[in-house]
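We now fix the convention by which a protein and its fold are recorded. Think of the row as the fold of the chain written in a discrete alphabet. Here is one such record, which you should read through line by line.
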Amino acid sequence: MAAGSMKDIKLRIKSVQGTMQITKAMELVASSKLRRAKERVENSRPYFTTLHKTLTDIAASNREFTSPYVKERPVKNTCYVIIAGDRGLAGGYNSNVFKMVAAHAEGKNYCVLPVGKKALELYQHKGIAVVSTAFGEVADLSVSDCFEMARILSEQYLAGAFDEIYVVYTNFVSMLSQSPATLKVLPFTAPTEEEKEAARSNHSLILYEPDSETVFNEIIPEYISGIIYGAMCESVASELAARRTAMDSATKNAGEMIDRLNLYYNRARQAAITQEITEIVAGAEQ
């Protein structure tokens, strides 16, 4: 009985050791990729900031400025660009994004542009309208893919396929903290009165050719692609950080389980030895 129990414990220890090797390897891979992902996040933020400031200045500097990208209209359909991961084993990274979309889209008629395998699989399974399935693997996406997404979104927005666009992603706060976020892309947020006054005071120094409205409309797709690229960089870094944390926790749990199993194994072996000694003594007394 004890021998059988010892064998089972031994097999269990080997199984957990194999799992711990995998989780440790995944943690190391995530850690090695995370430094480069953090650099991409830091490098992408100034690009978005500059684009946003330029568009705000153009919109604020002209009192007669009009653009279909700025005009508010009744919301009949909303489009969500949802950036998730290609794989699991990253704690609550994917589920937190999907929960935020569900809460934000409650009661709305909406469609999605999924980025990443997990997002594509989920919304296809739910039967939600998908704008494009061409961006199903976030790991393979490049800057040119972001421009293609921006082109699709801006064209369909102008055609009236949807009346507002949001990007849902995960904001990289730190190695231990990542928070899902929702960012409104279109219609472009109108500048405040303070921004308008500041822009008008500097307007004499800026000349747009052929005119400010044309320049604004041409920059909008660049702006959208910049938002998507920045959000994608934030999300990739967040996924790696979440996976690193999850795998580190799994590795520690596996180590603790192995310690407990070794304790059970030693107890079972001691019990087996004690039983053998008792049987020998009993046989000698007879």
Summary: The longest strand covers residues 164-174.
